[in-house]
Amino acid sequence: xxxxxxQNLGRQGEDDALDHLQRHGLALVARNFLCKGGExxxxxxxxxxxxxxxxxxxxxxxxxxxxASITPAKQRRMTLAAQVFLLRxxxxxxxxxxxxxxxxGHITWxxxxxxxxx
Length: 118
Known about the structure:
2 helices
């Protein structure tokens, strides 16, 4: 099935975020993890920790920018997906939630943005 322009831009944003995180020493564990009720764009390993990454891309920082577009509902869906993802581990590793915000091509990596953990 052909992708829309919006999907292609989203995929490019994820590619850019993945490249950025890998250049900073993180390793890819999973990409576009889907479960009923939630989704994770990227799951990375940072040392012993798992990092659940939400990638947001906006043409400009007008209207609050990419990071501001993550609503409480989206945060709940991310938490749910992380909980499902962690079921594969007999002993869950330490984990955190990060955001890679891309505003007008500028990447900002925000670490440990959700306080409730998985």
